[in-house]
Amino acid sequence: MDLRRRALLGVNGLRVLLMLFHTVARIMAEQEVENLSGLSTNPEKDIFVVRENGTTCLMAEFAAKFIVPYDVWASNYVDLITEQADVSLTRGAEVKGHCGHDESELQVFWVDRAYALKMLFVKESHNTSKGPEATWKLSKVQFVYDSSEKTHFKDAVSAGKHTANSHHLSALVTPAGKSYECQAQQTISLASSDPQKTITMILSAVHIQPFDIVSDFVFSEEHKCPVDEREQLEETLPLILGLILGLVIVVTLVIYHIHHKMTANQVQIPRDRSQYKHMG
After folding, report:
1. pTM score, whole prediction
2. Which residues contact 12 (CB under 8 A, 6 or more apart)?
């Protein structure tokens, strides 16, 4: 009995040890993150990298700003008026994250954790006329802010921690295996704990890939956002039209030159009938 009990205790101890090892390994993997903002030429843009098992599994570059309404007392100290704070994601922010097969998450903290941004990405499969296709998207955004932070919030009423969340979000939709890129500004509305106040998140200079990164620290092929594609078309359309117009002018001049040369070699029949007697 003692041997069986010792063996059982040994097996249970081994299981506990393996579970502890797995938990520690998972925590270490989640903490393997880097802020590479110093590599960006844009002073407003942050670059975040999440790595697990020595391999990049999530990369994100973007500039973010939050427009946050908050209440202050009016001059009569009876009425409330609404002010607006513009909170930007500052460079050098603390970052956490983890990657999964169909769900990845990025967390960013700045100004001594007075502000926190959580972005959840999911990968989904869909049946289409061409067969099954997979895409990923930004499915949830959570923004936590402390209105007692004096840099952006001055004399805020009911100062303290507040949380704003997205609802049924489906943003940055991208084919699986590709990265999402968009230079244009994109806005996402977040519902605050105060139902009368909506927080606006503004993203710009975005380049994100939360799944299927093939090369370490390298984005896969870009999937351009519709706004960028439209702006690129608007920029190139005048050039294309100019080239077409120039080609039409050149062709017209060539045809005119050939026609003029051919008609110059033909015998000119005099229009004055009096000259007919000298012919022949």
Report:
1. 0.71
2. none
The two three-digit tokens of residue 43, written as one number: 């002073």
> How far is Cα 159 from Cα 204, in angstroms, rounded to an integer?
29
| Angle value at C-alpha 238, between 234 and 243, nearest 5 degrees | 140
Please enumerate in sequence order all residues whose Cβ is within 8 A of that of 41, keeping only pairs 6 or more positions apart, or say none.
none
Residue 84 has pLDDT above 90, yes or no: yes
- Domains of the chain plus CATH, in order, are 28-224 (2.40.160.110)
How far apart (Å, rounded) are the C-alpha atoms in residues 184 and 120? Answer: 21
Strand partners, 70: 83
CA-based nearest residue to 106, from 7, 211, 28, 232: 211
Tens-place pLDDT, residues 90-112: 998 999 999 999 999 999 999 99
Which DSSP letter does residue 37 get?
Answer: G
